[in-house]
Amino acid sequence: MKIIHVHHHYWPVIGGLENVVKALAEGMARLGHEVHVVTSTYGAEGRPREEVINGVHIHRVKSIRLGYPDLTYPLEVPRGILRDADVVHGHSQNSLFTVEMIREAKRLGARTVIHFMAVDSFNDHPSRLIRLLAPYYGRWSVRKAIEASDVRLVKSFRDMEILRNRYGIEAEYVPDGVDEGLLRKPNMAVEFRRKFGIQGPLIVYVGRLHKLKGIDVLIRALAIATKKEPSLKAVIAGPGDQRPYRELADKLGISDKVLFTGFVDEDTKVGAIDASIALTLPSVSDHVEVFSLAITEAWAREKPVIASAVGEIPYRVKHMVNGLLVPPGDPKALAEAMIALVQDRELSVRLGMEGRKSVFTWDEIVSKLLNIYTAR
To answer: What are the Glycosyl transferase family domain coordinates in residue numbering (predicted)?
Structure first.
């Protein structure tokens, strides 16, 4: 089967959705399918426009960008590749690049698939300008994606409900997976603690350092929690500007209780999760929580999650079943959840083991998608 994946970013750009597309494309190529990725040149300056990596044919097309990555518009369309495809799978209807490529693939007669993500999710965005203007773009992109797609997928039950209730369409649930090796990897907590010289209970955050991810809420919560649990520390692992968060920790007098690792390799990330009592995800907006791979990774290591009730999170994280839910932007509630798991290790273990039941591997997800592609 000739399969095309479409998104405005691909490797060497590293991010949640970029990693998802890479895992799917390479997984399908390993099974012997002819797999292509159509993407923009953004983030890949210096790389060839056409290359093959791990069996995946990559096509980078000239594009323009209107400020935000989602507003990337293709100036070229590889019609020959799209026309001959058995299926063209676009990732995120919020991506103008994806929508335009899928629309063209539909005109050329290809079978088209769209993975809808963060549908109508701009209403709680902290930026007043985005709250004002982005919903119009969001509704337009959803409608165009519906028109251009033969198959509609979601990785969020929230998005499934919105598509059904607001747009009158059904979509199939296909979440993200994890590598099989993550389930088999030995516990790496000791190595992580030795590497960074850390003792005592840990809370870990894994992801981008972005204002919508609520890192400031986490730091304020830690300042509250350490008044009752002075040995508690937080590990913040991921790329982004650390400066404002370091300054906040200094201001609150807890700079010695926060470890910023920056971007880390896979083993270090797994070690941080293994060494922790729980993964913490204090996001403040629906828009950034479509399907948190960090949650899946924590559950794969049998760790519970403390998370804000935004986006898809309350559909996956069930309070006192596989994690703890807290209101977004509430440091006091987050601190209380941290303290609860520090003081009740048996609860932490039980919640983490329950979360493990919800984890799928990439091989399972690839198999499911291939069945969807061929169903009529």
So the answer is: 193-357
Do 92 and 211 share a structural domain? Answer: no
Q: Are residues 155 and 272 in the same domain?
A: no
Q: What is the per-residue pLDDT across 188-207, written as a single tens digit (0 to 9) for each?
A: 999 999 999 999 999 999 99
Verdict on whether the full-model pTM lies above 0.70: yes
DSSP string covering 221-273, please? HHHHHTTT-TT-EEEEESSB--HHHHHHHHHHT-GGGEEEEES--HHHHHHHH
Can you spell out the DSSP letters for 111-162? Answer: -EEEEE-STT--TT-S-HHHHHHHHHHHHHHHHHHHHH-SEEEES-HHHHHH
Give the model confidence (pLDDT) of 124-136 as tens digits: 666 676 767 777 8
* Pairing, β 72-74 against β 63-65: antiparallel
Domain hosting residue 258, numbered range: 181-356
* In a shared domain, residues 45 and 105: yes
- Residue 10's Cβ-side half-sphere holds a number of Cα atoms within 13 Å equal to 33
Pairwise pLDDT comparison (364 vs 120), residue with the higher score: 364
